[in-house]
């Protein structure tokens, strides 16, 4: 499993959540988690959450911190556990930074305002994940808050790198734990 921070901003529109996008865009083979900044504009037709699609919802923010992941050899349910781990890592880091944040499932909130959007879905070959943390939530369809109003840009980058490093370490530790035990018969 590889995790990388991409310095170059890139918009997120939804179709990026597809098999082998990370391979085709960044030439990274296998399971990976990529972080980048950029605007977010996901129209209803590109939402993979049926509840949101049926309500004609959309996702928008002037700028988000995006995490795009693809994981091979796991189930959708395992992907949701991975999503919850990533969101929990962010919750922990923000609490340590003095931000009063709370996690509800796969969402983060500061007060009553939403800080994140996230989804996990399955493809024929992998499980796909997107987590977006608002940096500038302007245009969001719900009351939202952005990290840029809570933390300095250098702190946001430092926390992002720390979350990526800890996530990659946890993922690799789980892989190792799964192959070092003897079976019980």
Class per helix and strand makeup: alpha+beta
Average predicted local confidence, pLDDT: 96
CATH architecture classification name: 2-Layer Sandwich
Largest sheet: 5 strands, mixed
Distance between the termini: 30 Å
Poorly predicted residue ranges? none
CATH superfamily: Bira Bifunctional Protein, Domain 2
What is the CATH T-level topology?
A: BirA Bifunctional Protein, domain 2
Radius of gyration over all CA atoms, rounded: 16 Å
Write down the oligomeric state: single chain
Helix content: 25-40%
Number of helices: 4
CATH class: Alpha Beta
Q: How many discrete structural domains?
A: 1
What is the molecular shape? Answer: globular
The ordered string of helix (H) and strand (E) elements is: EHEHEHEEEEEH
The side-by-side strand order for the widest beta sheet comes to: 1-2-3-8-7
In total, how many beta strands?
A: 8
Beta-strand share of residues: 25-35%
What topology does this entry show?
Blueprint: E1 2-5, H1 21-26, E2 32-42, H2 50-54, E3 59-71, H3 76-96, E4 101-104, E5 107-110, E6 113-114, E7 116-122, E8 127-136, H4 153-179
Parallel strand pairs: 1-2
Antiparallel strand pairs: 2-3, 3-8, 4-5, 5-6, 7-8
List the main descriptive attributes of the protein structure presented here.
single chain, 185 residues, alpha+beta, BirA Bifunctional Protein, domain 2, five-stranded mixed β-sheet, three-stranded antiparallel β-sheet
What does this 3D model show about the protein?
Helices cover 32% and strands 30% of the residues. The chain has a single domain (2-179), classed as 2-Layer Sandwich (BirA Bifunctional Protein, domain 2). The model has no long low-confidence stretch (mean pLDDT 96). The protein has a five-stranded mixed beta sheet, covered by helices on one side. Strands 4-5-6 form a three-stranded antiparallel beta sheet, with helices on one face. With 185 residues, it is α+β, with helices and mostly antiparallel strands. Helix 1 links the parallel strand 1 and strand 2.
């Amino acid at each position: 499993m590889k995790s990388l921070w991409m310095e170059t901003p890139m918009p997120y529109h939804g179709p990026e959540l597809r098999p082998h996008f990370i391979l085709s865009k960044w030439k990274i083979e296998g399971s990976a988690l990529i972080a980048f900044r950029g605007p977010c504009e996901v129209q209803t037709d590109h939402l993979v959450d049926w509840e949101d699609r049926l309500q004609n919802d959309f996702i928008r923010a002037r700028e988000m911190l995006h995490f795009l992941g693809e994981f091979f050899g796991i189930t959708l349910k395992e992907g949701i556990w991975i999503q919850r781990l990533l969101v929990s890592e962010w919750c922990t880091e923000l609490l340590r930074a003095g931000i009063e944040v709370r996690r509800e499932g796969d969402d983060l909130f500061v007060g009553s305002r939403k800080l994140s959007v996230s989804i996990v879905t399955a493809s024929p070959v992998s499980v796909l994940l997107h987590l977006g943390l608002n940096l500038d939530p302007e245009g969001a369809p719900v009351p939202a808050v952005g990290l840029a109003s809570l933390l300095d840009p250098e702190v946001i980058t430092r926390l992002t790198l720390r979350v990526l490093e800890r996530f990659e370490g946890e993922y690799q530790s789980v892989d190792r734990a799964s192959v070092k035990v003897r079976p019980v018969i």
